[in-house]
């Protein structure tokens, strides 16, 4: 009973994360301002990272966890770079 519940819970969370990625992609494409597009990109990479983690839990494969870590690091750096570019107009001082 508990194993079946865990499988269905992971599947449900993957579906919900896919829908959240669709909403973030919509905000990234149709955002009225650049700040909204950056927030959409942040939400998109976070949801993508969580989706990879749920795939890793489901398949018990460690490559998904490593790729989620890489996405988290690159997403954080890109968020900082985009924010700095919007505030100052340049990334590297």
UniProtKB/TrEMBL annotation:
The chain crosses the membrane at residues 6-26, 38-57, 63-87. It comes from the Bacteria. Pfam families: MrpF_PhaF (PF04066). It is found in: Cell membrane. GO terms for molecular function: sodium:proton antiporter activity. InterPro entries: MrpF/PhaF-like. It is a multi-pass membrane protein. The keyword Cell membrane applies. Keywords: Antiport, Cell membrane, Ion transport, Membrane, Transmembrane, Transmembrane helix, Transport. Belongs to the CPA3 antiporters (TC 2.A.63) subunit F family. This is K+/H+ antiporter subunit F. It comes from Pararhizobium antarcticum.
